[in-house]
TrEMBL record:
The protein's name in its UniProt record: ABC transporter ATP-binding protein
GO MF entries: ATP binding; ATP hydrolysis activity
Native source species: Microbaculum marinum
PROSITE patterns, A to Z: ABC_TRANSPORTER_2
Highest taxon of the lineage: Bacteria
């Protein structure tokens, strides 16, 4: 089911006092695509994820997901509708195994409050966690303390945890940060598999240009909270506006 719009922003604006982090941003994400969001530091990329997931409320404009407005909904409601995310900095719990991480992450009911006991006894949750564990090749590490694993594996656990809720849209905030070249290549294959086999749509923020350019089918380029370019990597790479705003600074 590709070709349909999954996520849509219309003139999305987010201000923090005098700072305009998102400035009338409009774009559509098509179902089944792997889409990159790039732009210089402070361009508004993380703010974008925060407004999509309900961590922040828009100052003006709208966000819709599967045709339904999600502006103003609480984060757990949005997560429950099928939007999952990972964060720029790893957020794993101390002294919890990989398996426990996969069980606690699944939102249910009206909030996150009773996650651990409910999920532990929930057959469907365990089945889903088992599937994700296998998909991510983490079976042998299930009883390991997640926070003590090598960096690349910790990132993998985080992503697996996001997946246990069964999302349609996965938001990844700088998934490659801190990874070595081999880990980045493995991640790339994993993301393609997630899209191909689980039908996920993936929106990712990333500073690693070679990763973005070889993985993503479509890119949005932000600068000062506005979209300054979009298109396939080939198109974006040649866009003079993008080059001067971002790639030019970086390479
Ligand atoms: N909670 C907040 N309060 C005040 N200002 C904020 C807040 N969050 C973000 N900003 C500001 O909004 C702007 C966009 O920040 P944001 O973190 O979204 O950029 P970014 O593109 O993700 O940057 P980076 O690539 O460095 O992570 C910046 O000027 C930032 O200082």
């Amino acid at each position: 089911m590709t070709g349909e719009t999954l996520l849509s922003l219309d003139r999305a604006t987010k201000r923090f006092g005098g700072i305009t982090a998102l400035d009338g941003l409009s774009f559509n994400v098509t179902q089944g695509e792997i889409v990159g969001v790039i732009g210089p530091n402070g361009a508004g990329k993380t703010t974008l994820f925060n407004v999509i997931t309900g961590a922040y409320t828009l100052t003006s404009g709208t966000i819709s997901y599967r045709g339904q407005s999600i502006g103003g909904l609480r984060p757990h409601r949005i997560a429950g509708m099928g939007i999952a995310r990972t964060f720029q900095n790893i957020r794993l719990f101390a002294s919890m195994t990989v398996w426990e991480h996969l069980l606690v992450a699944q939102p249910r009911g009206n909030g996150w409050s009773h996650l651990l006991p409910a999920a532990m006894g929930d057959k469907a949750a365990r089945r889903r966690a088992e599937e994700v564990l296998t998909f991510f090749g983490l079976e042998d590490l299930r009883n390991r303390d997640a926070a003590t694993l090598p960096y690349g594996l910790q990132r993998r656990v985080e992503m697996a945890r996001a997946l246990t809720a069964g999302p349609r849209l996965l938001l990844l905030d700088e998934p490659v940060a801190g990874m070595n070249a081999d880990e980045a290549e493995e991640l790339k294959s994993l993301l393609v598999a997630l899209r191909d086999q689980m039908g996920l749509t993936i929106l990712l923020i990333e500073h690693d240009m070679s990763f973005v350019m070889t993985l993503c089918e479509y890119l949005f380029v932000l600068d000062f909270g506005s979209k300054i370019g979009e298109g396939t990597p080939t198109v974006v790479r040649r866009d003079p506006k993008v080059l001067s705003a971002y790639l030019g600074d970086d390479e």
